[in-house]
Amino acid sequence: MWITGLSSFSEEASRRKLFRRKGGGGKGRGGRTSSSSGGGTSSGGKTSGSSSSGGSSSSSSSSSSSGGRSSGSSSSRSSGSRSNGGTNRINTIPAGQPFAGRTQGGGTRASVFGTRQYGSGYPGVAGRGVAGRSFPFYYWPIAWGGAAGAGTGAYLRTNEYGNPDNNTRPGGPEYTAAFIANSSTASTFHLIADSNTVTSLISDLMASCSSYLSSVVPPQSSPLDSSAPNGPQPEQAVQYYRASSVVLTLDGYNNTAVFGDEGTADLPLPDVVVDLNTNDGKLLGCLNQTIGTAVPLIDGATAKWIPDGGALAVIAVVWSMKFALGCV
């Protein structure tokens, strides 16, 4: 799925061989992705066009154990940036564990894209908000933190999943990293997700999108603090992914539709970030494409969460080898 106004990016990228990395940077990183990008668009929280993986990939025969940890159990489940996700395996969280009785699993790479609506990216589920929902990708949705508020915007500040610094969430507490366009306007995008996902995606995004960035030095991630001055806000969301457990925001964007009645049309993105003749637009397209293709997904093995020092840990999490990916 593609952000409104950017569906032409996938067409242009296809002609320019989107998935070729510049400078031979793919050494030792497995094979290349082979699928084409998605072609849908989103508007006003509704979706049009066909659903796509944004570039699902073939699987590497080997994997790396870095970035994960094991409980010592023989059961295992992998989380990788090229995993296709849970196929048809869905199970119920047992009694005694957080969110007992809800289902988890079943989400695949093909259904990872959402819209600008908080609560999007849930396969087969419509409507905004995340209260009471299952976990198709195992990860919990973004918690924006702050007071719950009232009125139509209250759904943005649910405390159901704790504050952003809640270290019991799968993948760790919420972190953010900034990506700044190499342009006079210096459009600034923030990636927000659990700390493991942010760490994993930074390397993919730098490998794919560095041509459009103001610096070739990878950004430092930091804990999300949406109450900080100039901190990322829900009205700045450009795109949600993976059952709203990952979001890309744009500084300066003020989509007041998120505070209106459900179905209110999203405000348009700034012209500079939808113009494919600018580095700002190219960066947004590249970030969106790469996140959809590389965001870590849990494989289809039986789900099992165990307490680990007060946190929930994935048993034997194994990070798959990352394939070479480029945006030019």
Describe the protein.
There is one protein chain. The protein has four helices and 15 strands. It is α+β, with helices and mostly antiparallel strands and 328 residues long. The strands form five sheets. It has a five-stranded antiparallel beta sheet with strand order 9-7-8-11-10. Strand 1 and strand 2 form a beta hairpin. The protein is globular, with a radius of gyration of 18 Å.
Task: Indicate the topology.
Blueprint lengths: L6 H9 L25 E3 L2 E3 L14 E2 L12 E4 L10 E2 L10 E2 L69 E7 L7 E7 H15 L12 E2 L13 E5 L4 E5 L20 H4 L4 H16 L2 E2 L6 E4 L2 E4 L2 E4 L8
Parallel strand pairs: 4-15
Antiparallel strand pairs: 1-2, 3-15, 4-12, 5-6, 7-8, 7-9, 8-11, 10-11, 13-14
Helix pairs in contact: 2-4
Quick structural summary:
By secondary structure, the chain is of the alpha+beta class. It contains 4 helices and 15 strands.
Q: What characterizes the major β-sheet? A: 5 strands, antiparallel
Q: Averaged pLDDT, please?
A: 73
Helix content: 10-25%
The backbone outline, from C-alpha atoms, is: globular
How do the helices and strands follow one another from N- to C-terminus? HEEEEEEEEHEEEHHEEEE
Distance between the termini: 19 Å
Share of β-strand residues: 15-25%
How many helices? 4
SSE-based structural type: alpha+beta
- Please tell me how large the radius of gyration is: 18 Å
**Count of extended strands:** 15
The largest sheet has its strands arranged as 9-7-8-11-10
Query: Which blocks of ≥5 consecutive residues have pLDDT under 50?
Result: 4-78, 300-328
Biased composition (Polar residues): 1-11
Biased composition (Gly residues): 37-47
Region (Disordered): 1-107
Biased composition (Low complexity): 48-82
